[in-house]
Structure formats: C-alpha cells, structure tokens
Amino acid sequence: MSREPTLDELIGAGATGAEREQLQKAHELLLQAGAPPELPPQLLKPPGVEVARRQRRRVVKRRTLALLAAGYGVANLRNGQSKPTAAAVLALKGTALEPRARASLVLWHPYDGNWPMTLNVVGLSKLPPQTYYEVYLVRDGRILGSCGSFRVSGPHALTVKLTAPYALRRGDTWVVTRQGPGTKEPGETVLEPVST
Q1: pLDDT for residue 52 is more than 90
Q2: pTM exceeding 0.70
Q3: Would you say 148 and 160 are in contact if contact means Cβ atoms under 8 Å apart?
C-alpha cells in the first residue's frame, strides 16, 4: 500500500506563513476526498464523437462541482464558519485561449453597497510582464465594469479576493479577461460562465 505524499514533498519549502496554512488545509481536503476512480474498461476503446462530447460535458461539470466544493471548504475553514454564507456561486470554464482553466466565483452578501467576492481559479497560464487578468461584471451580454485584477505564477490553484462595487441584478454574470500593454479593454476572454 503506497502512502500519500506530504505537502513538503509536493511543494518544497517555498511557501510560508498564511500561504502555507492555506495550502496545508487544501492538501488535507484533497486527501480526504481520496483518489479519483480508475478508468472503466468500456473507456479503453475510444467512444464515438457524440458520446465523447457528452462525456466531456459531464467531466467538466464534475470538475466544476469539485472545484466549487473545495472553494467552499477552504473559505469556510479560513473564516472559521460551519455553514457557507455565500449569496451565490458562479462556475467559470476556460475558453479556447485557456481550455484547462476552471474557476468558481463566490459572491458574498453585500456590505456598504460593495459585494465581496472570492475567485478560486486553477489552470491559468503565467503571463508576461505588464500583463494581467481582469474580472469584469457582465450585464445583458455587455461589460458593465471591472471588479479587480490579478496575476498568477502558473497553472496552480489561486484564491483572489475581489469586490463588485455595483448594484447587482438577477442575471448578472462575470468573465475573466487577459489584459496587457496596448490591449483594448476588456481584452480577450479566458474564463466564461459554465452554461447549464
């Protein structure tokens, strides 16, 4: 029986302090979840194109749900709460520019007209200097305004705190774009809502 690797074996001694504590909690949650199931024998032979599309959609939904659950778990552990208090959660998927990227955007209850948000993202590429990711509020298919920006150092998981300083409405959604020098806002969309 093989043992699970420790956090030190996976990331080395690079992370310290609060970042290390967050990574340790996430690592423990992943260990509790266990290994994914083995590949079923019926998948050893490639399925037809339509069957593959349906299976791909199911896999994307499962991964998104797992990412959302992990986001809730980490947020609740960090806040010391036993029940989530989020107003809404939006699952985001990567576009053709970042097909492996996934995210969950947790929208918390408003405070003084500001809607705090937590973006849990994984799979985005490291960008060149002076280039960054921007989170935009979308209403009726149009960009309404920015909710914040961030950078990543690679495709690993990242949690970012953002704010929507707007009066939100039912049907509002968000996208993540790639911005850089000379790029017109809102830039190229790299994460968009998962359609149900």
Answers
A1: no
A2: no
A3: yes
